Each structure stands twice: as structure tokens, then as C-alpha cells.
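Quick board copy: two proteins, each given as sequence then C-alpha cells.
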Amino acid sequence: MKPDENIPLMTWRARPDMSCEQVSRAWLDYTGYTPEQALGEGWTRALHPDDLTRWLECSVRAFDERKPFEIEYRLRRRDGEYRWMLERAAPLHADGGLFLGYAGACVDIDAHKCMENGLARALERERRARIATEEASRLRHDLMVSVLEELRAPAEAIAACAGRLQENTIERHARSQCRIISSLLELASPGDQAAREPLLSGVRVLVAGVDGQGHELQSMLSVAGAEVRLAPSVEAALESLGSWQPDVLLSDLDWGGRSLIRELRALPAERGGCLRAAALGGGGNKAAGYDAQLAKPVEPVALLATVARLAH
């Protein structure tokens, strides 16, 4: 039977034995087949080999049940490229109910399929990135809790011994350290989803002029969730105020921290003049202009507690 010249769609008809008896001109133009090549079982050569078995299973089940079916598969275009098709087919019956076979139509959905696959890949990449971020956050949180738990026992022991010795100064500092550790553990303890956030999550810390211990401080703060930037000079530190806008400044007094804080406090508030800052070192001399002061070498608990207090 000749193909219907007047049908603009890619259509076909099959006999009750599933052999093809007619294809439209649009189907022939798309595949490059002649009518003789397409009829009978010949049309199946245009299907992608990986999709043929799936098409046969679907169509045989539908033929047996005399029900409509729908399936997606790849069909080879006349230039050799396989493109995705959406095919829908329904049974044909004579007026008396006699089963005559099936009629079907194909629509090229390759562009939609590619977009769908691209979206699926993008969603999978986003899912993997989210899992990696959550895992990194959990590891940082667990590490900080572990460090604080390790520090709490010796701090409590020092406080107890100092109390028996009546060394009030030692006892006061030791108990202060215990309170800091307890507060940090309370902040870090898992509760609802928000409570699992690292202690310094989202806090930007500018570390200025800390020779030798700079990367160590950066590591301690990063584990607690902070974003850290090192500034090797006063000029670099002041430049970071506008380009990066830190939340807390840590500056070494022995390096030039007094000069930095004078220039900082001379700036208007909108340019960082009111930035909360902690001085490092200083040999016991008062750090004018700073909000807090830490002795060197800097202890992790004191560092985290000070930055958390200044940031929040």
C-alpha cells in the first residue's frame, strides 16, 4: 500500500500480526526510507537497537490487550542521527468489531528530551554539592565539639585544684575558661537544624600582620565556620574594609596594630570605622582603640570565644 501523500504527520498503520502496512510521506522523508524498505518488519531497522526490545514489549502487550499505548524511543533520521520520538498508537476496529490492527503517530521530542536531561543533570549536581556542603559543615561542627570536650576536663581540674589552694586569680581564670567552653558547647550542641550551624558560620574575620601564627589562626577560625582573610600590611587591611567588609578584625600589636587601629577609628562608620577589633599580643600594654585583647600565643578557646562575642 502506498503512503498517504496528504498526511503531514509521521504516521503508520500495522496489521493484526503487527507487520507494517502503511507509513506516511512525512515518516519516509524523515528516515530516508522507501516504502518498500519500511513495510513489513523493515521499519524496525530505524529504531535505536537499545530501544527496540522495549518498544516490542510495550506494543505486544498492547496488541494482546487491544489497548492504546504510548512510548518514547530513538529513531534514526535520514542523516544518521538518532532523535527521541514520542509515539502514541490505538487499535483499529471494523464496524462489526473486527480487530484490524493499529494506527500510530510519532512526534520529534528530541529538544525537549535534551532540556529535560540537562535539568536532571543540573539537579543532580546541585544535590551532590548540597550533600558535600552539609558533610563539611557536620565535620567542622564535630571537630569543634571534640576539641571543646577535650579542653573542658583539664579546665575543670585546674579550677578545682586552684580552689583548694585558694589561689583566687588562677581559680577565677580557670572558671572563666570553663564558662567559655560550656557556652561554646551549648552553641555547638545539635538541636534543631539551625543549631547545627558552626559557631562562626558566615562571620568574616580579617587577620592583619600576624607573622608565623597567621595560617594557624586561619585554620582555627575556619574550622568554626568563619571566612578568613589575611592582610600582610596596614594598606592591605584598610583596602579589605571596602572590598570585603569583614565583621571582626584581629591585629598584631607588635607588628603595627596601633597604627592600623588609629587609621581605622579615623574612618567614618560606613567605611568601617566602627569595626569590632581584637588586639593580639602587646606584652601586657593596654591596646587603646580595640574592643578586646588576646595574649600570644593565642589559645583556641579564647580566640573563638572572643570572635564570637565581637561578631554577635
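And the next:
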Amino acid sequence: MAVGDGDHVTPGAQDAQHAQATGERVEALLADLREQAGPGAAATAEELVSCLVELYGAGLAGIIGIIGEDAEAGGRLLDAMVADPLVESLLLLHDLHPLDASTRIRRAVEEILPQLGSHAGEVEYGGMDAHGVVHLRLERGAHGCGSTAATITATIEQAVAAAAPEAAGVDVEVVEAPAELPLLQITRRPAGTMGAR
């Protein structure tokens, strides 16, 4: 999602964007190593990156453990960590997120729906199957614009995939809500028209 000059970006979101850019840079550097220095140097670099990720993951797990020991402040601190997009992405990366996948998926859908406006309709979470595919049912209002269905579905899929990266996929079943029947108004016949033909 492009951010315009007038858009407000929270520091956590900026950090998450920076982390994503850094990850992409690491991938590009590893690709350069494969091409220029050969497979041996690339394999060594990949192992180095893997070791660093494992080290930082162990450190993050230690931090989560220390926070969890404080019954009074632990929950509040974990909530604050999850609210920061960068920290949340690191917790997800290392499988340390305090919320289960279903809770994260429901939360992501609830957060994204108001941004989609009245065209989105209602979304029902159908769970994650044995293959790791998340199932959602999107019931669109009869007044919704057909051309936005693909955009709405793609936006929901992206939000769910970001909230639950362990999911193997996202399946959104789009169902159109039944059209409402027009109400018939029954009124009294004006006086003097009774019996008139």
C-alpha cells in the first residue's frame, strides 16, 4: 500500500516497513552472492543469516518469558508489544505471538472491514482446516457494487495472511445477500370511493 504525503503513518508502521525493506535487501544480497561468489559463499551467507535470526529469536523468547513472569504487568506489556506492527511481525516470525491464529484472524477482519466501507458486507470466520487453509464467508449486501468484490476479497486475504502467516492459504467464499422485497403499503381508501367503480 502506497503512503501519500498526507497520510499519517505510525512509528510502528514505519518500523515494520523498514523491516520489510531490510528483509528484501537481505534477499537481494544473498542473490548477488549466489551469482558473483558462487554457491559456496551464498550457502555460508544464508547459514549466517539463519544463525542470526535464531539468536534474535531466542533473545525475543527470553524477553517474552521474563514479561510473562510478571502477573501484574505482563499482560499489559504483551498487549503493547502486539500493538506495535514491527514487534508483532517479529513475534509472528518466531512463533511467539501470544494470540492464537483464530483470534488474530478475527481481529484482522474486524480491523479491515470499516476501511472497506459499506460494500464489504459481513464476514464469517469458518476456521482453519487440516491443511492450514483459512475459510471465510463474505456475505455482500444487495446494494454492493459487483466490481469491488475482487478488491474486497483480495484486501481481506492480505489482512488474514499478514495476521496468520502460518496459514497455507485463504479461501473467501463470496455470497450475495438476498435482495430485500419491497414493502407494500396498505392504506385506507379515501372516503367516498367505497363502492365506486
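Board note added afterward: The first strand starts at residue 122 and ends at 128.
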